[in-house]
Amino acid sequence: MKILLGKVLINYPYFAAVILFAIGSATVLTRSNLFKKLIGINIMESAIFLMFIAAGSRRDGVVPILHMDDSLRPYINPLPSALMLTGIVVSVSVTAFALALIVRLYRFYGTTDAKRMSDIRNGVAKE
Amino acid sequence: MGKYLRLAFILILALLTGYGVLVTVAELPPYGADTNLTYNQVSERYINGALEDTGVPNMVTAIVLDYRAYDTMFETIVLFTAVIAVLITLKGAQEEGDRK
Amino acid sequence: MGLTLADYGTMAMLFMLIVASLAMYFIRDLMHAVIVYGAYTLVMALIWLQMNTPDLAITEAAAGIGMTVMMMVVIYRTSRKEE
Amino acid sequence: MKDFVLRRVVALLLPFIQMFGIYVIMHGHTSPGGAFAGGMVVGLGVIGFSTVFGIEQGKTKMPEHVTTITESYGTLWYILMGLVGIFKGLPFLANKLAVDVGVPGELTSGGLIGLIGVGVGIRVASTMVTLFFTMMEEEA
Amino acid sequence: MLELGMALFSGVTGALVVASLPKATERLRRAVVLLFSVTGMVFSWRVAIKIFNGGNIGIIAQLGGLTWSLDPDPLGAMFGLIASTLWVFAAIYSFGYMERKTRPQTYYAFFLISLSATLGVAFSGNLLALYFFYELLTLATYPLVIHERSADAVKAGRKYIIYSLSGAAAILIAIVLTYIWSGKIDFASGPILVNTMRPGLNLLLALFVGGFGVKAALMPLHRWLPAAMVAPTPISALLHAVAVVYSGVYGILRVVYSVFGRELMGTLSLARKLPWVAAFTILVGVIIATQQDVLKRRLAYHTISQLSYILLGAFTLQPWGLGGAILHMISYSTLKVTLFFCAGIIAERADETAVSRMQGVGWSLPKTMIAFGVASLGMVGMLPLNTFWSKYYLMRGGVQSGQWSLALVLIGSGIINAICFLPTVVASFQGEKAKSSGETGGNTMLMLGPTLCLAGIALLIGLYPGIVWPGVEAVVNRFF
Amino acid sequence: MTAVIKTHLPVFVVAAPLFVSFLLSPMARRFGWVQSLVVGVQGLGLLLAVYLAGMILKSSGVPIIYSMGGWPAPWGIELWTGSLGAFFLLVVAGVTLPISLYAVNNLSDEVGDATRSTRFFVLYLLLAGVLAGMALTNDLFNIFVLVEVATISCCGLVSARRGPNAAKAAFNYLILATLGSGLILGGIGLVYMITGNLNMGFAGIALNGVWQDYPHVVWMAMSFFLVGFGVKAALFPLHVWLPDAHSTAPTPASAILSGLAVKGYIICLVKILFGVFEVHLLDVFRLDQILVLLGMLAILAGSILALAQGELKRRLAFSTVAQVGYIVLGFGLMNIKGVAGTLFYLASHAVIKSTLFLAAGALISATGKTHVKDFAGVGRKMPITMGVFSIASLGLVGIPLFSGFVGKWYLLLGSLEVGNLTAAGVIGIGSVLCAIYLFPIIRTAYFEPAPEDDWQDPGVPQRLALVMLGIAVIGLGVLPGPLLQLAQKAAADLLIIP
Question: What is the ipTM of this complex?
Fold first, then answer.
């Protein structure tokens, strides 16, 4: 157990990523407000980004931009950063689209709460 | 009763997942070490060959816009898709009789 | 492999992230939650900087601000309170 | 918003914000940042301007028919740049091999990368603006 | 080749013609139906004669990445012959019966498609083709079952489809298992599984018998059959006494003799229990039949009982048993169709469906009731009728297989059969003349003709069993 | 010129729909041009796909590898046109063409005016291009990006339908699908961490060397992929978003979502499972059995839920849940017959389900009714629509000589070859249940008296689309030839059997 925890401590960014992921998905799944769901999605995705970047990082590394003079220290792995640039764009797109959907839902239901919406819908169905 | 059962089920599931995740995290290659498995021929080429290959000193840009330009093409397409989706969602989507 | 001072700094920032995300879970006022989200993205950008990826940091900062603005706009136009 | 100071400051800052954004776009391959971040900055500049001066004013800066075209053709630009490689008898999206100009490390280096970046930047900026305007719009 | 194709496609072609003439007069439609069913019959006869004389006709097609083959052997030819012959009678009977019913076009179209499907089942040369036509038969007869469109009919149709498709699913699984274990599925080269000794054969047999047993109304899979009696009478007669149920019976015969082969069957523990399942169905079916008041339901349960005669004969795995089974297929079908036709006439002309209120019907419908009486006697197994011979051979088969008690079951069932039908016949000639429109009138002859004709044929076969013997012999020689 | 096209064929197949989709948005005013461009590029795509598949078949499965930007495999992204890719490409191109034909002049009811319809077509073409990309890609991160584009365009297509229900469904879909993509990205991250490669082939090789040191990581990555793609592909317990989304979407969107999008995710999952983890690891971690179990569960639950639905499109949507079960089950069988069968089943279900949705859409828009029981007598008034619907239903049930049967036959062969009688039984029960929930629709349509309303078959392009699909259902059942061959080759490639 101690060894396990020691290893977890060494891998603290991954651990933080896992916790953030858990909080994010909990927000998505348990909060009924649509904004909260959206924020949860964003937290979750940034947790994954964190994991990726941590995977490419190294303690003695430097910024992966070529410096003619500073070639003694190693560069960090540039690939995860490149991937996560794409990832950020993706999460921006999803957020924008989800916001648009929220606006449209609000226009109809007058609320941004999923539970209220289904209540209203069932009420409408009963009438 | 059903509520407690459900709670217990969720709790057990969460504990199991948590333990699994903990073990996985502990098992991953140590963070920040230079022995990481990601430092292989792939990143080697990106770090040492970027300038020669692409003429770009910023390796991230070299990867984004040259080595993996295909991904970036789809990245811009994601944005494009999102814009079109937003427009189709908000413009003229109301039907008559909608209430506010 | 021991942990260096930089690591403890990163840890602190990660801790801030976790606190911020928990805050976003619990805060009822959506506008406040979104403001916390803006702070969250900024801390995230700092972490990227700490991990030597300035490209990502700049993008994250820009995207974070953009998204926060968008969310604020939408919340401003819809409802502020979580029910 | 009617606040005089705010209006003046924004009016003054706007060119600089845009310039910074364009700088980030153009120098994406030599320094941190890139087309996406730069385009975002440009777009946010316009957004800031229209929050302060009103949507109508903002729309005159970037009318809808312009954003429609920049969005679509900005993305199309990427594929066209990719096709340059094919016209030169190289694979799709070949950059440096297709057009090799400039010394490594300078602005013109990297073949088509700069051009692609400009396209992506324009496209991201117009995306942000479109998103903002669409969200701010009254009932359709 | 040509005969096979003509026999097979006459039904479908006829259906297409009928369907493409929505505004045709009734007379024209009848002519078309008669033409194509007679074509089907003639060519099935030609196929059968060729096959009985040792000829060989086969079509093999590669469709859907799989091999489909049509290659009738004597057993299949015999089934095709029975079905297509009775089809012509049923067609003529339908002309009378459908006179005042609605939607004749749909009726005749699916009637003819069913002919093709039945002949396909009969002529199929491998398990896949058998399966295909078996499914096609289900789908083609479904519209006939729900022809009345009443709530009852729809419910019965639902039951029918669910039972049949479940059975078909079991058969498909069984076919795939057979294919995996033996690598072939065609019947021509002897029993498929003959060299396959492995665990799981009992399960395979159970799947096959369960699957085909649905259509053969083997208890406890019989429940769809009484429900499906809401169909028009010619359909009840033809499909639920001959075509559909016989396709199930035929499938089981195929499984026993062409898939497993009698040697292998003899070694399976399940195979030794199957005669008793059949015996159980025989007794229980007929006992339930005596309890039914509605004539058609009584006939339905009786069908369930009688089908198991055939299965029992087949399960004895003896030449006499098989011969008896084939003979019973012939004789039973003629008699049962007669019974159903009579029931239909009674229901149409005397407007009576309950057995308990049949007093006096005989006076108003004498010819019908005489035919009914003849057929009833046949069901008991009286001498001048064909079933006497078939029951005799069945008993002989049972005795030959060393199971004396099977013969006792048959005798017992004959007695219960007598209780089941003879009182009705006697009662119908008692009391006053019932209210009835009599046996005259425009279309009655169209119904009465086939009925009497079939009763005559039954008598004829009973008096001269030799006329069907070559066919039965050919079938038995094929497998023994 | 032809030589150039031949060399760059994989790129053109992916890029052509995308290229056209960027052209459309500014020319919304000339809606006629938009439509002809869409149909034209889909036709071109079909031609190219057929040609590519022919090349693959002729070279008996030797893959065409195209390095993007000239960077070879571990550094750049490559398009790997193997048998599986060509197969799925053919399916995508073959199904998207009729669907786009169906959408011609037929969107104003459900989507709106020319501008909105143009945007609908843009999203549609993006989805088509991305699905083609999914067929060909051989890079883990590329899969993620493609999946993301597909998700957003799917949700966009759903929300293109006017009214609030579609927006609600689209939001739920978007949130759950993004949750799924998060998991997928997490899985990719884990794989990248322990292999250092994103190219699937190289990652597979690297993983083979190191997996014993990281068993939990491998297990975690596998479950991430399974759950992530499971959410997107509506694998049974994770299907909650599907019925709403697929039943509220505009008709052509329902067709492509149910017919193709779901399959695209499954193909991606399969590529990752079989390409990165490979058969050996799947065997070690018992993932095959999990797949079979999930498949059986999905078949039974999906069919029973479909039975309970009264609305036509919802019933079809739940039927998709069940059919996904068949496909997943087949991949879990891990033998060549099972996998080839499941691939063929995937293709035939793509055709059949699009047909069913298109026909259902035509029925609903002609009659204005949605409930299964309301279509009494439609069969006579709308002979083409209902005829094609019946053909597709028979195909889905698995009547011989319709396309569903060939797939089911091989699925049964595969499951019985590994001795899994339960799976075979569930497949059988599934087709019976399928008949129970589809046949009543046909019965009411043909055998019940029609009301006096004036219901008519849809317009010429729609009828053409329906007939094309109907012919495909029968054609695949009668002459599956090349497609089946391709599926068998693809199965052999996946299972690494020479």
Answer: 0.91
